[in-house]
Amino acid sequence: DKQLQIAIDGPAAAGKSTAAKIVAARLSYIYIDTGAMYRAITYKALQHNINVEDGKALGRLLADTDISLEQGENGQIVRMDGIDVTEAIRTDRVTNNVSAVARHSEVRRDMTIRQQELAARGGVVMDGRDIGTSVLPKADVKIFLLAGVDERAKRRHAENLKKGFSSDLENLKREIAARDKMDTERVESPLKKAADAIEIDTTFMSIEQVAAAIMAVAEARK
Ligand code: C5P
């Protein structure tokens, strides 16, 4: 079998990571959550009181930062300079600052190189915003997942409650919409469907249906 590169892009909370993890497990591929990498550098920048508008300072910080993704028994473990930041990168503070950090060319250029190196091993499912357009323009499979903002906020809300986190639906809606706007409007590798990506609107689909749809495309390309 050919070892595929599968790129999954789309707006916040569209179900990318859930679908990507299922597909990676079924194909025995590695899964790479590029959003977690942007979150890790955002977390470090906030810790070091670096201004999220200062691209040069963020670029210097990133050059000096080790970010690793590892498949643990209970999902992916994210390490920043050797420290487990898997949970720390999911706080509201990081979520509300990550798009400002991810906007800078100094940050994106460095991340893109790291992500291309991770994907070079082949047999990879990578999710993010610019994988099909910029990181892996030659990916064998490109998927663009979307869903209405109300539905995405509802899903994230249910997820939060299930985890025992406090959650406010209206806040989530605003946060998701604000992040999508920044990610879509930035100059450097904005969130955009690649011309050759297959678009899947997941609004009325179950996660199993989404995974099956992506698997069908992947099987056909092997
Ligand atoms: O996927 P997740 O929601 O964790 O991504 C967090 C943020 O990281 C996005 O809102 C976006 O600003 C940034 N990001 C990006 N490019 C990627 C992945 C994530 O700019 N490939």
Structure keywords:
222 residues; alpha/beta; Rossmann fold; 5-stranded parallel sheet; 3-stranded antiparallel sheet; 50% helix; 17% strand; globular; binds cytidine-5'-monophosphate
Structure description:
Its main location: cytoplasm. This is Cytidylate kinase. It is found in: Cytoplasm. This protein has 222 residues and is α/β, with parallel strands linked by helices. The protein has one domain: Rossmann fold. It is 50% helix and 17% strand. It has ten helices and eight strands. The chain has a five-stranded parallel sheet, with helices on both faces. Strand 4 and strand 5 form a beta hairpin. Helix 1 packs across helix 10, helix 3 runs parallel beside helix 6 and helix 8 crosses helix 9. The radius of gyration is 16 Å and the shape is globular. The N and C termini lie close together (6 Å). 41% of the residues are buried. The mean pLDDT is 96. Cytidine-5'-monophosphate binds next to helix 2, helix 5 and helix 9.
